[in-house]
Amino acid sequence: MSGLKMPLPDAATLARRAEIVADMRIIVPGEGVVDAENAMRVFETDGLTAYRQLPMVVVLPETVTQVSRILKYCGERNIKVVPRGAGTSLSGGALPLADAVLLVMSRFNRILDIDYANRTVTAQPGVTNLGITHAVEQDGFYYAPDPSSQIACSIGGNIAENSGGVHSLKYGLTASNVLGIEMVLISGEVVRLGGKHLDAEGYDLLGLMTGSEGLLGVVTEVTVRILKKPETARAVLLGFASSEEAGQCVADIIGAGIIPGGMEMMDRPAIHAAEDFVQAGYPLDVEALLIVELDGPAAEVDHLIGEVEAIAKRNGSTTCQISTSEAERMNFWAGRKAAFPAVGRISPDYLCMDGTIPRKELPKVLAGMRELSEKYGLRVANVFHAGDGNLHPLILYDANKDDELARAEAFGADILRLCVKVGGVLTGEHGVGVEKRDLMPEMFTEEDLNQQIRVKCAFDPDHLFNPGKVFPQLHRCAEMGRMHVHRGQVAFPDIPRF
User: For the FAD-binding PCMH-type domain, which residue ranges apply (predicted)?
Assistant: First the structure.
């Protein structure tokens, strides 16, 4: 697994593996327990396929009672648990551990309630993101957050990572669209946070759980907000001779007070890969492409399209194509939605990074990435949620060549350091997982990290949920404060933390 360090497996737990597997079969009878090596291969990685690890055992519960019993059993016996949804995490958040129960929630796959009066859907966590929209679209509603993996990613996983998508600029990430959850603690206790009402009283524990990456509890039910489909939605394709011009156009559109339903940017390698894959009609003679979607009343959309077109021309746009039908609008988006698999066709492997920057820094960061590409001798294809500054550089490499994975990891780390340097953050929607774990001191002080770990201690005092993820070094709750971070460096950096 390259240079990635993970917690050492607990020998006592591994010695009890046969007993643990037998007890899991009692809790989840039938085919809900997988312990054969070949059968577990399916679960050895997630969307960050550079890292792989067989779990100790895979358990697929079907009821909340089963989840509660599993977690109570593991909590009482000091057994680690790694929660997993659809396994589409791009930061290694669902990477198994050799001495942990991999708790897979894919059998929780039913829509439980559709309430148009309150504009909510209540679903089990294994329902796909797109499945929620499919359940309500015949009545003119939809669920706004739309990750590129929405056909496969689960709503429970969206909560774990606070997922976004192309429409998050106007309608928000998962955190802005989830109203309530049911969750199970490591003690087996089942608790509810929020509901169909707008805001819950007291501490914002729902906000705390959204984006918690499986470190605090296991979600077993989700209530989300659904929206009425806009009267009109039209998309504009804008081509530019440089990424800097496209980046400035993004800043000027937002600066003019226009908030598009979505605003995405692709550079030349991503444009060509997507066009070859989908044939979306993208111009191939440009260095950067913006897809800007305006939605709302028809008169407003027509006016805003004119405004956007004028701003693009002032920034040197060389092409402008406006959708004239719903089919054409969807075709514009088809290429963007397929950008990740499309890039997979032009490189044996790639790392999909995720950082967020202030919009005004986009030209500077793009220039910096070009310099880093030359430094590391690796190509990069860029796909951005440009409107909110969420970058997704795809670093192309070949894992069969000895040092390319290590170079790709170093390249990615430098991109994220650049994001932080210009006032951004390490992640926008993919989470920290294992991918960005060791970069956390670049962004957070010792005090910051200790405070975050104290929150985990309140929910999971023995650190049994998803250890080895998010924090560069975990220590027992009684040992808080012993890790020292100075100027972004931990003491004695040569000592393996994980």
Answer: 51-229
